[in-house]
Inverse folding.
């Protein structure tokens, strides 16, 4: 859930390690590196074999990343190159038509799933690869296979187009589960059947406004979308896009084509770093929000139409909820002001704690430096007390800053587990009830932790009463 950088297509292991070191030099957060098509010995289509020139020691490369607290996510399109060792094994279980001249395995059959599993476990996951980006699984008959294509299982071409991305998501997620290792990846096409799978939708389209619309609309079927950043014509558009992506399911800069960095526009480098660090500090809130997605099915990023008590009398665009308490209202290049619809109750500025309105439409002029964020009355927002550039590691004790907004009492359920395994399914997790009550006109904070052995936060948090202090 930290920050992700996808590197240029033909980067080598040395290029990628240098990129990680540049992130360190710029004091910029980095969670995982996306390795684009050049890691394959041939792509497009793919061999799923490491290129021995650019990556002579894949295991050593992945270990070097892990030593720096960074994980590796591999790009693929799931079509098999004639140059690959899998080609002859998969051919009897493939469709009648190719994509990018690559075989299309019929993953409704057990045989190709077994062949892929053995290869991926030996050559990727067993070496420490943490996830995949699944490309080119969207489109229709003139982009992938036509309606007349046939598959060995008897699945029709149209049916296979609808489920192909889902099949690969489920298959790969199961491989990681076998290792008792969680994954978080990307896919270019999905649907409601993927709401339980650990993948975020991305797209080669690049309208900022439409990206935000897609993020919002995806919540209606419980799936996730990232408004990835790739490039910009000026610093303002760059900053606005970076602000949006840091308040999305995956904070990602995709530099596969042009090698952009978070600091590519020096005039806004500090503001970009600030919003990336804010995302890192919000990890306790964000992780708990994703826990509710897992346990209760509540989308972590969701349309305002799903906010309880909100009655819409006109169209609402370009704003959404992150978790139960934070309203996000992105700005776009060229905008100086915008309207924001506030749901029932009092709402406060995230940064200052000041009251901004109550069940009304407000007009804001936020300036360039920050993305507008609003918090409901009584909300409790747990944050990391200090900035950091890497994700927490097992056994690390983290200091909390817990913010309360408004004048009402509030409760927040803070979740924690080891962050990497499925042991939480066996009960290895903790909930902490963060509570603010009112006694004799005073706000009284309290934190009660269950299963303390699985709780990695310090139990002497700093409470900030953002509104009361005003």
């Amino acid at each position: 859930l930290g920050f992700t950088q996808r590197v240029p297509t033909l980067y080598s292991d040395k290029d990628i390690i240098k990129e990680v070191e540049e992130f360190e030099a710029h004091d910029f957060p980095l969670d995982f590196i996306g390795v684009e098509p050049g890691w394959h010995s041939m792509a497009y289509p793919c061999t799923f074999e490491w290129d021995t020139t650019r990556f002579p020691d894949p295991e050593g490369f992945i270990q070097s990343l892990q030593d720096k607290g960074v994980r590796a996510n591999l790009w693929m399109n799931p079509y098999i190159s004639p140059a690959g060792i899998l080609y002859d094994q998969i051919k009897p279980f493939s469709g009648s038509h190719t994509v990018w001249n690559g075989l299309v395995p019929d993953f409704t059959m057990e045989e190709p799933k077994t062949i892929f599993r053995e290869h991926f476990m030996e050559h990727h996951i067993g070496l420490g690869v943490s996830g995949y980006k699944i490309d080119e699984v969207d489109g229709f008959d003139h982009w992938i296979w036509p309606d007349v294509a046939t598959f060995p299982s008897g699945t029709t071409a149209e049916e296979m187009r609808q489920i192909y991305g889902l099949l690969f998501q489920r298959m790969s997620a199961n491989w990681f589960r076998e290792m008792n290792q969680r994954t978080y990846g990307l896919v270019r096409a999905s649907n409601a059947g993927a709401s339980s799978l650990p993948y975020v939708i991305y797209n080669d389209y690049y309208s900022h406004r439409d990206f935000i619309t897609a993020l919002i609309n995806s919540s209606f079927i419980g799936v996730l979308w990232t408004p990835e950043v790739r490039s910009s014509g000026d610093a303002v558009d760059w900053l606005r896009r970076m602000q949006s992506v840091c308040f999305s399911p995956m904070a990602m800069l995709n530099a596969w084509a042009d090698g952009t960095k978070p600091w590519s526009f020096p005039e806004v480098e500090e503001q970009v770093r600030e919003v990336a660090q804010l995302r890192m500090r919000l990890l306790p809130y964000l992780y708990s929000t994703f826990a509710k997605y897992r346990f209760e099915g509540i989308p972590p990023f969701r349309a305002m139409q799903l906010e309880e008590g909100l009655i819409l009398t006109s169209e609402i665009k370009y704003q959404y909820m992150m978790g139960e308490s934070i309203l996000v209202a992105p700005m776009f290049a060229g905008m100086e002001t915008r309207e924001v619809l506030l749901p029932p109750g009092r709402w406060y500025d995230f940064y200052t704690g000041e009251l901004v309105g109550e069940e009304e439409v407000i007009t804001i002029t936020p300036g360039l430096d920050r993305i507008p964020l609003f918090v409901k009355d009584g909300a409790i927002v747990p944050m990391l007390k200090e900035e950091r550039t890497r994700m927490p590691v097992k056994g690390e004790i983290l200091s909390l800053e817990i913010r309360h907004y408004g004048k009402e009492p509030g409760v927040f359920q803070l979740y924690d587990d080891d962050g990497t395994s499925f042991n939480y399914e066996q009960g290895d997790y903790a909930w902490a009830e963060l509570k603010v009550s009112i006694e004799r006109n005073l706000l009284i904070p309290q934190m009660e932790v269950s299963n303390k052995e699985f709780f990695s936060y310090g139990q002497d948090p700093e409470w900030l009463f953002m509104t009361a202090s005003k």
Notes: The first strand starts at residue 3 and ends at 6. The chain has nine helices and 22 strands.
